Amino acid sequence: MGKVTLNVDLQNPIVCKKINIEAGMGEFEGTGLGYLRAEVVNIDVGLGSADIDFSGKINHNMKIEVEVGLGSIKLILPDNVNISARLHDYFLSTVNVEDLVKKGNKYVSKEWDSDRPTITLDMSVGLGSIDLKVSD
After folding, report:
1. Taking Cα atoms as reference points, which of 8, 38, 4 lies closest to residue 22?
2. Pairing between strand 3-7 and 27-31?
3. Sign of the alpha-carbon dihedral angle for 31, 35, 36, 37
């Protein structure tokens, strides 16, 4: 039930294949995670909370998988990438998606550009909450 803070402000010189973030019953706060150059990021928030900002230079496709039980997560994604987000929610969960448009069963970037990298999100929430927004 502690708190972990991770601030990244330098570009990782190598590609990181996979990052796992587990908040459990604690708190996780991360900024600049786009600098890590991860291909896959798994985020598991059980009863805890996470505040994650993927700012940084993202020049490759990235897959982010989010699972929230009773906890909460706030995700901030950069505006210089394409975003495709699929959400699996429960009728008692709280979901707030800003700056993306709903197309079918997905939320996508308002201005899709095939020359930009794509962040693909797969989010699942039980009784918790997800806040997703795109940074300016």
Report:
1. 4
2. parallel
3. positive
| Number of residues in the chain | 136
**Whole-model pTM?**
0.94
Distance CA 58, CA 56 (A): 6
Could you list the residue range(s) of the whole structural domain that residue 106 is in?
A: 3-134
The structural domain count of the chain equals 1
Distance CA 80, CA 70 (A): 31
Q: What is the pLDDT of residues 97-110, one digit of tens each?
A: 999 999 988 999 99
Range 15-54 burial, b when 16+ CB lie within 10 A, else e: eeeeeebebeebbbbbbbbbbbbbeebbbbbbebbbbbbb
Rounded CA separation 17/6 (Å): 18
| CA nearest to 130, candidates 89, 81, 73 | 73
pLDDT tens per residue across span 40-78: 999 999 999 999 999 998 999 999 999 999 999 999 999
